[in-house]
Amino acid sequence: MKAKQSLGSRLAEAVSGGVLRVFLVVGLFWLVPTIGLLLSSLRAPEDIAASGWWKVFTEPSQITFDSYAKLLENEDITGSLLNTVWITVPATLLVVIIGSLAGYAFAWMEFPGRDWWFLGVVGLLVVPVQVALIPIAELFGNIGIFGSVIGVVLFHVGFGLPFAVFLLRNFFAEIPRELLEAARLDGAGELRLFFRVVMPLGAPAIAALGIFQFLWVWNDLLVALIFSDSGSQPITVALQTQVRQFGNNIDVLAPGAFISMVVPLAVFFAFQRQFVSGVMAGAVK
Question: How far is CA 247 from the centre of its chain?
Fold first, then answer.
């Protein structure tokens, strides 16, 4: 026989259920701007000027892909999309690879000053990006990479590594020592141990780090606005330039903004299982 719940327990369950429903409704409202941007990108400029995007539900004949065709003819937008890929992919891969190797070294390798070096890495986490913009811009100008894709990539790698090393070092440190010792007794060297044992066990954390880094670099505007020029600017800067120069160029801005937004969303949903596993792994341990 089920025990009778007290009045307080019933009220707590009712309130918690109501809060959950409220958050679900808020989540649906959060999607409204995304839906509005998608529908705006599928409408002609004259329809956008005449009425709101919700008019599509009563007049579905307004839907057209002409704006996306014009987008593909705009060399500034298409070139910036390619630049975004050239910036985001290397910046993400370099942070994941270097951060994984450094995290393993700080967790399981003995070398002079290891703890002090790690404290220095942790200290870099509190350095604001804005503080380093001018000094690094001068440095990149002196070595000839200011305004290039390489300069933007190196800046993102430099500021992404402290968090990557901190995250992966703490995750790798939770691997049982007995497992690593057994692999060493079988003759595994450090590199083989890293790639055969540590990397598979740390895959969830590495995937979570990769998603964080990808989203940060893809959506960045400040760094790209300062360190890129007209030939290396990513999509965020290109769209900002279009708004400044052609404020009524909505037939290009709407589809460009939607593509810029949907790519990181697709990456997140494609790897959401690994992302959740990486986030939850630290909580379980």
Answer: 28
> From CA 71, how far away is CA 127, in angstroms rounded?
38
Burial status of residue 227 (CB atoms within 10 A of its CB: 0-12, 13-18, 19 or more): buried
> What does 203-221 look like in DSSP terms, one character per residue?
HHHHHHHHHHHHHHHHT--
How far is 79 from 84, CA to CA, in rounded Å? 9
Contact 82, 233 (CB under 8 A): no
DSSP state of 148: S
User: In this structure, what token pair is assigned to residue 256?
Assistant: 């460009």
pLDDT digit string (tens) for 23-79? 555 556 777 777 888 888 888 877 877 777 788 888 888 888 888 887 777 788 888
The C-alpha atoms of residue 231 and residue 251 are separated, in whole angstroms, by: 23
CA 187 to CA 199: how far, in whole Å? 18
Record the pTM: 0.79
Look at residues 204, 213, 64, 74 and name the one whose alpha carbon lies nearest to residue 153.
Answer: 213
> Bridge-partner residues for 34, per DSSP?
none
Q: How far is CA 122 from the centre of its chain?
A: 21
The first and second tokens of residue 70, run together, are: 């014009």
One DSSP character per residue, 245-264 reads H-TT-HHHHHHHHHHHHHHH
pLDDT band at 146 (very low <50, low <70, confident <90, very high): very high
Beta carbons of 41 and 255 less than 8 angstroms apart: yes
Tell the burial category of 27 from Cβ atoms under 10 Å away from its Cβ (0-12, 13-18, 19+).
exposed
Alpha-carbon distances, residue 10 vs 14, 15, 19, 243 (angstroms): 6, 9, 14, 54
